[in-house]
Amino acid sequence: MNLTSGNTHAARRGISAAALLACAVALAACQTSSGPAAQIAAIDTAQGSAENIASLTSVIERSPNDAQAYNVRGSAFGRAGRYEDALKDFDTAVRLNPQYYQAYANRALIWRYVGDDAKAVADYNRALQINPSYDAAYIGRGNLYRLSGRTQEAFSDFQRAIQLDTTDPRAYHNRGLLYQAQGQQNFALEDFSTAISLAPDAAEPYNGRGVSYLALGDEDNAFADFNTAIKLDEDSAEGWANQALVYERRGDKARARKSFQQAVKLDPNYGPAVAGLNRTKGG
Fold first, then answer.
1. Domain of 225?
2. Is 23 within the bounds of a domain?
């Protein structure tokens, strides 16, 4: 599969990188993703506090046929982790306004979180049927496709969002992950850099770009990106594990082990960190 076909880089040849660090880097790259919590955070700017939900409930009581009010409260419920309540509100929103494409896309995020990917895709499809130019739905559906291994469909969705001039960094970040997985590290670097320019306070694109730098043998820039990722998110197991990889490459097993230990502390099930900790025993 040639991911560069049909996009703005079509005139340029994809550049294959040397193999990623056999023991861990490829796994780390695969972990650079927008997880369910990040997806929920993207629903809306509404906060999930009890006070905010109570305020939104008052609005609904005054205007029980206001689809937008249910959509906003559903977003707040989603951020609060009250997924059943969120689904009920989004159900009501689309019942009141069957053309409410944002509510379908918001409901898809909740379906994604509770593990019903089929319903999530159906809701994204419905949102795009109503509004074929809705970039958020392409990005959300593309991420579902990416995580389920439907790589070409994922690429097409991210590409479509970018062609629509999206300012959502997830489109570039996720397309970068696909380029990265194909070994097209220079294209990946461009996308991660664009994602960083759109969201300079997000750790994930720095981790992603660092992995591509490391694959290209640019250890210094990789290390700088991993350190920035840690500064932005000290609770990122991925960031600490990636930092440890550079220490390990440099032969500093003591520092590598310390960083791997921090990663495992944050996420005991993070495979690259566990493997790295085992490799650096005695360092």
1. 132-233
2. no
